[in-house]
Write a structure and sequence with these properties.
The protein is of the alpha+beta class. The chain has helices at about 10-30, 75-85, 150-155, and strands at about 40, 55, 95-100, 105-115, 120-130, 140, 145. The chain is built from 3 helices and 7 strands, in the order αββαβββββα.
């Protein structure tokens, strides 16, 4: 689906969930030094009210055989998608954010995939550099847009 051809309401909804997810991810990084996968969902506008944004998170699954194991963020994203699919008809648009490692330059990045219920999808990647010392300044590169495949919207 060509993003330039989208209705302004669809573009606005995608921008709202993308911008909110990016802001939450950056805030978590600056305050906690890390963030776990989460979703932002936009509920449809009700009469005169503005559409509401919801933060959706799932707990990490523990490995009983290895309690010290790293958190499986891929499993968390899958769990988020399951929750979104179960509640999907209630939302107008969603964005799923995760912390990724860019293999080509070994750099951390925020990755966000946004989808609208009409099937439009797009992704952004924003590389970042952690401060060298605690309390130092975080450096966030310009976000880059990527193509994305609609998964949630196609499951509705």
């Amino acid at each position: 689906m060509n993003l330039e051809e989208l209705d302004e309401g669809v573009k606005d909804a995608l921008n709202k969930v993308l911008g909110t997810a990016l802001g939450v991810a950056r805030e978590q990084l600056e305050e906690q030094g890390v963030f776990l996968p989460f979703a932002i969902a936009l509920e449809p506008k009700e009469e005169e009210d503005e559409p509401e944004l919801r933060l959706i998170a799932v707990p990490p699954t523990d490995d009983p055989e290895d309690p010290e194991a790293d958190i499986d963020t891929e499993a968390m994203v899958a769990d988020l998608m399951q929750v979104l699919n179960q509640q999907g008809t209630h939302f107008q648009a969603i964005a799923v954010a995760s912390d990724v490692l860019l293999q080509e330059n070994d750099q951390d990045a925020i990755h966000i995939v946004a989808e609208h219920r009409v099937g439009a999808a797009l992704a952004i990647v924003q590389p970042y550099t952690m401060p060298a010392e605690p309390g130092g300044e975080w450096i966030f590169d310009e976000p880059a847009a990527e193509s994305a495949e609609a998964i949630w919207a196609n499951a509705l």
